[in-house]
Amino acid sequence: MSERIAVIEGDGIGQEVIPAAIDVLESLDLDFEFVEGEAGDAVKEATGEALPQSTYDLAADADATLFGAAGETAADVILPLRDAVDSFVNIRPAKAYPGVDAVRPETDLVFLRENTEGVYSGHEDDLSDDLSTLTRVVTTSASEKLAHFACDYVEDSDDHDDFSVVHKANVMRKTDGRFRDAVVGVAEEQGVDTDEVLMDAFATHVCLDPEQFDVIVCPNLAGDVLSDLAAGLVGGLGLLPSANIGDDNALFEPVHGTAPDIAGQGIANPTATILSAALMLDHLGYTEEADRVETAVESVLAEGPRTGDLGGDADTDEVTAAIVDRL
Ligand code: GGG
């Protein structure tokens, strides 16, 4: 059966790493139809809209979406795109690969980030020349939905048994308190073991001893920040893929942004996006192909060629070609 894949490059290195992932997917010779949509800073400049309705509809109607990166317009692009696919969880694996010079080579984490609310649901106001406010939204229903997903995730997996709930409920008693109570409550009902870690303590402990953590369930902004921190432990943002999962739809994107410092030079690391494509293959049921892509990526990370962020001097095309060669 043909799969309709929405492809949205966005800005900056999104325009370099998404074509790399498409090269990898095309080399698998699957019955995929790739349909391009526009979004981001350049589209806003040209049309006044960062995310045209046609791109939103494309993502909403596709079997899956592959998205690159957004810069200044991130809030106008990424959040509505996650909404288009009804995503309630952002899965962010952060794993150290053999051959990569990682600060903590023993790191192997999966962040399950709440994907609809927290400070990201965005009720911001300027109340005076001196005062801006932000309303943080946390619901029991969204927290429980994430918790059910997390329980199923560890129960269905051979590699995980339990999860850590990361929050700051000792200070944000109502919002993170609600999040914590909802997640722990569902886990207790489903018989899944959890432990609780305050998010500031987590930041220290994950740097000192990442092996004590496995699956981490956390509120929206905490998931964004802590997964970027974990990227620092495994060799950088060029390595972290992500999957935004909804009930009937999903969107896959590298964790990194547009990287304006290197955009346009053809030297971006395509690994995070190619691994995001592997997560998409797995999600669509192409598990063997997903494994092949991950194995090929692992082999190239171990033996080279590598991009500059990993200490090599290869460009995006050379790394992509090496991955395709090993498939
Ligand atoms: N690849 C997605 C991207 O553009 N990331 C940059 C960013 O601002 N991310 C925020 C988020 O993931 O919530």
What number is the mean pLDDT?
Answer: 97
Distance N to C terminus: 22 Å
Instruction: State the name of the first-level CATH class of the largest domain.
Output: Alpha Beta
Q: CATH superfamily membership of the largest domain, which one? A: Isopropylmalate Dehydrogenase
**SSE string:** EHEHHEHEEEEHEHEHEHEEHHH
The total domain count is 2
Q: What's the architecture of the largest domain, going by CATH?
A: 3-Layer(aba) Sandwich
Q: If you consult CATH, what is the topology of the largest domain?
A: Isopropylmalate Dehydrogenase
Gist of the model:
42% of the residues lie in helices and 23% in strands. By secondary structure, the chain is of the alpha/beta class.
What are the main properties of this structure?
ten-stranded mixed β-sheet, binds glycylglycylglycine, two-stranded antiparallel sheet, IsoPropMal-DH-like_dom, 2 domains, Isopropylmalate Dehydrogenase, 327 residues, alpha/beta, 12 strands
Tell me what the structure shows.
This protein has 2 domains: 1-90 and 240-326, Isopropylmalate Dehydrogenase, CATH 3.40.718; 103-234, Isopropylmalate Dehydrogenase (3-Layer(aba) Sandwich), CATH 3.40.718. Helices cover 42% and strands 23% of the residues. The protein contains 11 helices and 12 strands. The longest helix has 17 residues, at 287-303. It is globular and about 50 Å long. The protein starts with a strand and ends with a helix. Residues 69-70, 74, 78, 224, 253-254, 256-257 line the site of glycylglycylglycine. The site of glycylglycylglycine has 9 residues, from α4 and β12.
